[in-house]
């Protein structure tokens, strides 16, 4: 507790109590196992909110959070997305939940020192909701198979042209070309892709023909609620078995071995100067090739992950299997990634109609 003796007054009591509240909340989050980055970000949100209100937690009310979120949402071209607003609201709500919990002693201290107490100000009716309508931006969708073919052909043609001209740019472009295809084949996020290492691949004893590329251990998968990265295993599926010879080539001396930096580490994607490429570099390269291919600007590197989900479902894979492959906790998240083609929808409804209208085997026998 901040004050051991309740009769001793605090110098600049408001600031000292608020700082102690934030420090206590930081300690609580550390004890819960959240990452330092997440904790720092949440504490920064609370500090900015206090500056915006020019009041302290024991004076905050629900109108303060509404005014704050409305101001951020209404900044014209600088307006924040609903996803960001939701994260801000969640951080402030969690802080209020901490200081308003009588078990931590802040309620008693504030009542004794300031004659007021902190309360929860974030509720369901004044905070952004997580809905299917705003979870995925309208322009962020899956690639169609023809768009993917256009993109991959564009990158491969660039590699061939640069190699023929003797340009050094062909090797980084080759690396990125294979990296994009691996992202699609295994449904990887950008960080998961960038941090792959040679030993992350292993055999699948049930599919020996894939050799040492039958399964992929993803070590940098997205964690939950600020936790550290999770792990998951992604199996090489028949729909994407073309990735096996690509990986066999890339992991040979003729592939990544051409990079002078490849001996420094086991990173799957070395760069020209460093042992490993950065996620931002992959993203920038993808953006450049997408523009060169003349594809819509809304199709980012993450859309390859959407495409993996969509195309596996179109190929008839079980939705639960697809969910496990991409590491989604909830099936609803996988559903948001799915944008099956109109042809697939037409085939599905046609098959359903045919099943309904066709006579059963028993009727035929009769």
Describe the structure.
The chain is mainly α and 366 residues long. It has 16 helices and 3 strands. The protein has helices at 13-31, 36-53, 62-73, 82-99, 106-114, 132-135, 145-164, 170-186, 190-194, 243-250, 279-292, 303-314, 319-326, 331-337, 342-357, 361-365, and strands spanning 201-202, 215-221, 230-235. A hairpin with an 8-residue loop joins strand 2 (215-221) and strand 3. The chain folds into 2 domains: 13-135, DNA polymerase, domain 1; 145-351, Intergrase catalytic core (hpI Integrase, Chain A), CATH 1.10.443.10. It is elongated.
Sequence-ordered SSE layout with sheet pairings:
Elements: H1 13-31, H2 36-53, H3 62-73, H4 82-99, H5 106-114, H6 132-135, H7 145-164, H8 170-186, H9 190-194, E1 201-202, E2 215-221, E3 230-235, H10 243-250, H11 279-292, H12 303-314, H13 319-326, H14 331-337, H15 342-357, H16 361-365
Antiparallel strand pairs: 1-2, 2-3
Helix pairs in contact: 1-2, 2-4, 3-4, 7-8, 8-10, 8-12, 12-13
What would you say about this model in short?
It contains 16 helices and 3 strands. The chain is mainly alpha-helical.
Question: What general outline do the C-alpha atoms trace?
Answer: elongated
How confident overall, as mean pLDDT?
Answer: 84
Number of helical regions: 16
Order of helices and strands: HHHHHHHHHEEEHHHHHHH
Strand order of the largest sheet: 1-2-3
Structural class: mainly alpha
Which fold name corresponds to the CATH topology of the largest domain?
hpI Integrase, Chain A
CATH homologous superfamily assignment of the largest domain: Intergrase catalytic core
């Amino acid at each position: 507790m901040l004050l051991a003796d309740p009769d001793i007054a605090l110098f600049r009591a408001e600031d000292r109590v608020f700082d102690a509240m934030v420090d206590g909340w930081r300690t609580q989050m550390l004890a819960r196992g959240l990452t330092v980055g997440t904790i720092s970000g949440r504490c920064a949100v609370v500090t900015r909110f206090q500056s915006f209100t020019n009041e302290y937690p024991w004076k905050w009310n629900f109108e303060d959070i509404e005014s704050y979120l409305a101001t951020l949402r209404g900044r014209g071209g600088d307006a924040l997305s609903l996803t960001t607003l939701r994260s801000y609201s969640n951080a402030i709500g969690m802080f209020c939940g901490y200081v308003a919990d009588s078990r931590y002693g802040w309620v008693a201290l504030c009542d004794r020192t300031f004659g007021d107490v902190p309360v929860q100000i974030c509720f369901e009716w004044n905070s952004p909701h997580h809905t299917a309508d705003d979870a995925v931006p309208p322009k962020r969708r899956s690639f169609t198979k023809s768009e993917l073919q256009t993109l991959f052909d564009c990158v491969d043609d660039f590699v061939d042209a640069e190699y023929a001209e003797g340009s050094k740019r062909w090797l980084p472009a080759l690396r990125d070309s294979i990296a994009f295809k691996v992202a699609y084949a295994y449904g990887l996020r950008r960080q998961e892709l960038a941090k792959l290492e040679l030993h992350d691949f292993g055999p699948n004893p049930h599919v020996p023909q894939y050799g040492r590329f039958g399964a992929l251990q993803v070590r940098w998968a997205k964690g939950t609620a600020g936790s550290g990265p999770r792990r998951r295993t992604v199996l090489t599926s028949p729909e994407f078995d073309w990735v096996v010879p690509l990986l066999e080539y890339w992991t040979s001396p003729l592939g990544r071995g051409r990079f002078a930096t490849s001996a420094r580490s086991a990173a799957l994607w070395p760069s020209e100067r460093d042992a490993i490429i950065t996620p931002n570099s992959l993203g920038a390269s993808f953006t450049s090739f997408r523009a060169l291919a003349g594809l819509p600007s809304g199709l980012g590197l993450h859309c390859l992950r959407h495409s993996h989900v969509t195309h596996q479902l179109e190929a008839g894979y079980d939705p639960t299997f697809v969910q496990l492959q991409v590491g989604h906790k909830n099936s609803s998240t996988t559903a948001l990634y799915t944008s099956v083609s109109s042809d697939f929808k037409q085939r599905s409804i046609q098959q359903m109609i045919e099943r309904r209208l066709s006579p059963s085997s028993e009727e035929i026998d009769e």
